[in-house]
Design brief:
The chain has helices at 5-13, 30-33, 48-63, 81-93, 110-118, 132-138, 149-161, 180-195, 210-223, 235-247, 266-271, 282-299; strands spanning 37-44, 69-75, 98-101, 122-126, 144-146, 169-174, 199-205, 227-232, 255-257, 276-279, 306-307, 311-314. It is α/β, with parallel strands linked by helices.
Length: 315
């Protein structure tokens, strides 16, 4: 049975942290303050990871209020590309000097970002890497500041593999299939499973969403009674998968791993409902991008990309 995302969160962790509304700021113009205006445009603020990212960015700006102003935006769900394009256009119209973006799609956002760059706005790509070939075709430079998602997912998968035996059946719940970080996390999971001789019986997209993953996991458990593990490309999907495993009466029989290390997952890590996740330091990820933008604006140089840390988290 599918459950509403908020009910899933409440059932699993006793709270509704994943259902907070979008928050945005409206600072004065750069001309009036003498400070650069930086816009942070994220994916779904229904996802606790991006709530954490937003709070980290706001905390950084509060500590550097004399240095820059910040506008924070996010879309309602992970696949609303039109809304994210609209946010990019709004930020350009509001006269921001830099745009730090976690794109919902690795290709579809590039035309809007090219228009932003042509309007003189510096573009920094965080979280989900934009497609290199499409960037080249558009003539857009957007340095990536973020983790190695494939390495992080592989490390999480290796923790899982130690709990299983060669030949065991596993399934992967990937994110939005056109997102580079989803592709990389799937590849990392596959690297670890193949190295351990485990059998991947299904790969399906939960589109990063808890409710979607809940329904898919229920179907996989029914279709593959020998399934030993569900590898989820983010923790929202891991929460949905965990609810399905509980509902199927298979707690302890089917292992679950995730990616992001959101607070809502901690009780599940503690009691074993989820084996492992990856911490990419969501509270600092936007900050890394903001700092890159501020340095480039201050130095009047082309910003450089940066690989940020990611670590495995277990009980």
């Amino acid at each position: 049975m599918k459950l509403h995302p908020c009910l899933l969160a409440a059932a699993l962790v006793g709270g509704l942290a994943a259902c907070k509304p979008t928050d945005s700021g409206s600072p004065a113009s750069a001309a009036s303050t003498g400070k650069p205006r930086v816009a942070l445009v994220m994916k779904s603020l229904a996802n606790e990871f991006f709530q954490t990212m937003a709070e980290g960015a706001k905390t950084h700006q509060a500590a550097h209020a004399a240095d820059y102003d910040l506008i924070v935006n996010g879309i309602k769900n992970e696949t609303d590309l039109a809304e994210q394009v609209g946010l990019v256009e709004q930020m350009v119209a509001q006269g921001v000097q830099a745009l730090v973006i976690a794109p919902a799609d690795s290709k579809a956002l590039i035309p809007a970002l090219k228009r932003a760059r042509d309007a003189g706005v510096l573009v920094i790509n965080i979280d989900n890497r934009l497609d290199a070939d499409t960037l080249n075709q558009a003539g857009l430079q957007a340095p990536f500041v973020g983790p190695d998602n494939r390495a992080g997912a592989r490390a999480v998968g290796e923790v899982l593999a130690k709990q299983l035996q060669a030949g065991d059946e596993v399934a992967i719940l990937e994110g939005v299939t056109t997102a580079f970080n989803s592709q990389q996390r799937r590849a990392g999971f596959e690297d670890a499973m193949k190295a351990a001789g485990l059998k991947i019986v299904a790969v399906q997209s939960g589109q990063w969403e808890m409710e979607k993953a809940n329904g898919i996991a229920a179907g996989l458990l029914a279709a593959h009674p020998k399934l030993k593990a569900l590898l989820c490309a983010n923790d929202n999907m891991a929460l949905g998968a965990a609810a399905s495993v509980q509902a199927a009466g298979k707690a302890g029989q089917v292992q679950i791993v995730g990616f992001d290390n959101i607070a809502a997952l901690k009780p599940l890590l503690a009691d074993g409902r989820v084996l492992a996740t990856a911490d990419q330091h969501g509270d600092q990820l936007a900050v890394f991008g903001i700092e890159a933008a501020l340095q480039a604006l201050g130095d009047k140089t082309s910003p450089a990309g940066r690989q940020t840390p990611v670590e495995v988290v277990t009980k």
